[in-house]
Fold these 2 entries.
Entry 1:
Amino acid sequence: MYGMRMKINHNGQSVILRRFTKNDIPILVEHFDSMKIHMYTKGLFAQTLENEEEWYEKNRKNPDSCTWTIQPEGSEYPIGVTSLDNITSRYNFCTSGIIIWDSTWWGKGIASAAHLGRTLFAVEWLNRFAIRSSVREPNVASRRALEGVGYTVWGTEPISTERCGEFLNTHHLLWLHPKRINIYYPNGLPEIFRNGVKKAEEALALAKLEVEYL
Ligand SMILES: CC(C)(COP(=O)(O)OP(=O)(O)OC[C@H]1O[C@@H](n2cnc3c(N)ncnc32)[C@H](O)[C@@H]1OP(=O)(O)O)[C@@H](O)C(=O)NCCC(=O)NCCS
């Protein structure tokens, strides 16, 4: 399924998250044959228009996923994709992911803004209590964007993939809903998550101010 439209005004950036249309698919394909974009994702092979049209159709009908394309103000085209997956987990978890496929938009606060909207939606509309994600160790920008909204690295998997002749470790992260802590941790929040939960509280308060459903 595709996500409802929202606008996030964050640190001078205005970013729209909206559903995909079929017209967006060729733009995605154009950028999805780049190792620069996929260096730290799970992608290893280029996608064709046919593959991505199938993805669009499959995703459209998938009740377990909520996907948006990302379009910042000032861009005629969408520049990325972000999603919440496993949204029907009976344990109120979900997983999250993001790819900004147009690298000219990297480092401009787009992921940080998108994460605010995505996280607020996970909490306020999907009743998620926790969000999981993972990041390749060298992908500092991705880790920082996630930590900025309250995700915590809880563990690191050694040599989990090979990229460009080097074996990379993968960090695993968890975001915890500050008001649902007692459900997962009735005996108290483990120290490792304290800072993240504080940040999550701040991020949700900020998101309430900066996210607008259109
Ligand atoms: C990783 C990615 C999502 C980051 O998105 P972005 O919009 O460039 O990130 P932001 O501009 O919001 O920056 C997030 C944080 O990383 C920092 N950052 C940005 N680029 C950086 C870089 N090259 N090196 C180190 N830190 C960087 C920012 O300063 C910011 O930190 P702060 O919150 O402490 O200020 C984007 O580069 C991308 O899609 N890459 C390709 C696909 C990918 O790797 N997806 C993630 C898989 S886990």
Note: The longest strand covers residues 152-163.
Entry 2:
Amino acid sequence: MTALLNKTALVTGASRGIGRATAVALARAGAYVLVHYGRSAQKAESVVAEIQMKGGRATAISADLGTSDGAALLAKQVRSIVGDRLDVLVLNAGISKSAAVADYTVEDFDKLFATNVRGPFFVVQQLLPVLGEGSNIVVISSLVARMVVGKPGLENPSILAYASTKGALETLIRNWAGILGPSGIRVNAVAPGVIDTDMSNFTKTEAGREVALGMQALKRLGKPEDVADVVAFVVSDGARWITGASIPVDGGSKL
Ligand SMILES: NC(=O)c1ccc[n+]([C@@H]2O[C@H](COP(=O)([O-])OP(=O)(O)OC[C@H]3O[C@@H](n4cnc5c(N)ncnc54)[C@H](OP(=O)(O)O)[C@@H]3O)[C@@H](O)[C@H]2O)c1
């Protein structure tokens, strides 16, 4: 595939899970991929090695997007590598938390919003000078931005703060799409359901797996590659008339 030949791409949180698969998919489509990571340096280097082994181009870069200067530090590195043009920006890095409502702390809440919302907000701001006509931004949202999952009841753990960060991202992509459309920049979200990664460790138990499969029309666990292939399509010319959209990639969850 050569849909992204000679294009540059940044994938945040590409050391593991959905980000990793997305970096590999974009490189397979021909892009030079910046593999961003937070703490998993070795894993990020292994993604770079995998891409290079398959004949692609990639470089690992690090920044903690949960800190107030993380976005600026990341953008500085990106600009020093790609120069004046970034074609594809995938905002994937994120954290999650499950707890009973009474057990959430202010620190939990702030960390979730700092990493999942403030980070992407300022990464876009800081990279605007290198985004231009034909560039694409994709945000990895979630099914839970629009649907309530888990058992009801105050005694049960819930992911409501995490879900709210994804709701904020869905609002942001529509605003970004409106603001950046006249510059020829498309902005979309991809909203996965349950995907088998470190984050969704509840699927490692039989009970958790049953919960996931119980809400899906398609009866297998989603894989990172199921999401990555959609991201690769959304940033390709085939999706040139799609902007401001959130595309469910969830095996038909909660139909
Ligand atoms: N898995 C699911 O079921 C699911 C469903 C819907 C949406 N999503 C969304 O998809 C995205 C990826 O999820 P995943 O399941 O692939 O998660 P994952 O396997 O836990 O990977 C998370 C990635 O984010 C990076 N990251 C986390 N905090 C960071 C920080 N402060 N600074 C920099 N990087 C940071 C991690 O980097 P390091 O390890 O290098 O620190 C890692 O590469 C997230 O936005 C998540 O909300 C996941």
Note: The chain has one domain: 8-199+223-246.
